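lol forgot to send this yesterday, sorry. struct tokens for the thing we talked abt
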């Protein structure tokens, strides 16, 4: 392996690890800041950092890095412009750009994982990041649908009768559907909402099956995996 390849591998591993770290922080912080006055601002800061680390994580090639940067710029810009001037840009536009960028990151990280020749920390971080990004992307889609079709989802808890599916509640519902562990406190009512939840649940199940089969296959076929560490 050439020196340049080693440098590229190390940079990518560090980038994917940073992406997974920011995703973990987002999931941990979101429920605590959701009802705060500046909760959306805190989430936007963390999400912006996640977008920047995502650009580095998928930017193995110059063209890919350029496309990732071009998608990240409007996603970050629209989100912050909405915070500064809510009447200037609708929040829906920011969600659409976020979904587009997250989808791009998922596709490229998935290609990286399935083409990996060995299972290492880099591949595992990428595989976990993809799974968490699934939940983030669908949370944005649920938020969009709840805004465009107010009766698409219903809350069964009396205390949440006037709640809206946005922010942490959308992420919470998305993780439930992705893991197929639902508690029944949020229910899809419209046909579009039901179809979105079915697609996410199927994507989560198939992704885990594909990843387990692929990673086990790569690990078992690697000759070095059968040799004891020196």
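and heres what i got for the seq, position by position
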């Amino acid at each position: 392996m050439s020196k340049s390849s080693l440098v590229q591998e190390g940079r990518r591993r560090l980038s994917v690890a940073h992406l997974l770290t920011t995703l973990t922080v987002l999931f941990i912080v979101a429920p605590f800041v959701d009802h705060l006055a500046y909760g959306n601002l805190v989430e936007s800061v963390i999400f912006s950092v996640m977008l920047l680390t995502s650009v580095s994580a998928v930017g193995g090639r110059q063209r890919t890095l350029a496309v990732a940067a071009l998608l990240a710029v409007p996603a970050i810009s629209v989100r912050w412009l909405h915070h500064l001037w809510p009447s200037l840009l609708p929040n829906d536009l920011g969600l659409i750009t976020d979904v587009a960028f997250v989808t791009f990151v998922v596709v490229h990280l998935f290609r990286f994982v399935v083409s990996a020749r060995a299972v290492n920390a880099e591949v595992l971080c990428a595989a976990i990041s993809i799974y968490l990004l699934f939940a983030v992307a669908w949370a944005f889609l649920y938020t969009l649908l709840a805004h465009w079709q107010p009766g698409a989802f219903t809350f069964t808890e009396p205390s949440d009768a006037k709640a809206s599916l946005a922010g942490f509640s959308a992420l919470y519902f998305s993780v439930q559907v992705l893991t197929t562990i639902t508690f029944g406190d949020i229910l899809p009512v419209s046909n579009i909402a039901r179809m979105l939840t079915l697609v996410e649940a199927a994507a989560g199940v198939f992704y885990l099956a594909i990843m387990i089969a692929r990673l086990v296959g790569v690990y078992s076929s690697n000759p070095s995996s059968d040799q004891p560490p020196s």
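Confidence is low (pLDDT under 50) at residues 1-11, 225-230. anyway ping me if u want another try
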